[in-house]
Amino acid sequence: MAQEARRALTRALAALVLAATVFTAGAAPPPKSKPAWAELTATQQQVLDPLKADWDQLNSSRKANWVGIANRYPGMKPEEQKRVQERMQSWAKLTPEQRRVARERYKSIGKLPPEKREQLQQQWADYQALPPGEKRMLDTPPTNKASERRKPKTTTPQPAQQKPSTPKQ
Q1: Quick one: pLDDT at residue 140?
Q2: pLDDT mean over 80-88
Q3: Which of 40, 55, 102, 123 is the Cys-Cys partner for 44 at CB 3.0 to 4.6 Å?
Q4: What is the C-alpha to C-alpha distance for residues 67 and 44, in angstroms, rounded to an integer?
Q5: What is the model's pLDDT at position 167?
Q6: Average pLDDT of span 79-108
């Protein structure tokens, strides 16, 4: 009886595995988000060229945002166009993890009270006005020596030393 139950269980498991294999083998790959790169106009492709390598991995809403920027691009002033291109190129160089962190920071800034956002914008404007050399100094993390100076020094108490005993004569 126990042997029959095992056989039935084995058959049921085999049928389940077979069914799962059939269903997954016939499953179509998920549809690519629209628009595909080939569906963009020549002007949009030219503007969005820094994102070409990653275009297929973007979801539809992100693609829509970038297409909107590409559509506004011809009406921008030359300095705005340059800024958009520089930002797109730097964005394209980020790793997926760095992009995720950047999005989270952007969202958190949007949640700040207006006075905090204005303060942050002023600090950013002050930073942007600095000469490149000073910016580099601020961008580099402190060296170990500087960070060691900031840390309070802790000393571990030394164990009490006992005088060596001399044998009594």
Answers
A1: 74
A2: 93
A3: 40
A4: 7
A5: 54
A6: 92
Residue 89 CB contacts under 8 Å (≥ 6 apart), including other chains:
50
Rounded distance between C-alpha atoms, residue 5 and residue 143, angstroms: 70
Rounded distance, CA 103 to CA 110, Å?
A: 11
Tokens of 133: 């050399």
CA 108 to chain centre: 14
Q: Residue 16: phi, psi to the nearest 5?
A: -65, -45
- 7-11, 65-69, 78-82, 158-162: least confidently modelled range: 158-162
> What end-to-end distance do the CA atoms of the chain give, in Å?
90
Cα(135)–Cα(139) distance, rounded to whole angstroms? 6
Instruction: List the structure tokens of 11.
Output: 């058959």
- At 166 the three-state DSSP class reads coil
- Longest Cα–Cα distance of the chain, Å, equals 106
- As given in the structure block, the two tokens for residue 91 are 């964005």
Q: For residue 150, give the nearest of 160, 141, 140 by alpha carbon.
A: 141
**Residue 23 belongs to what H/E stretch?**
helix 2-25
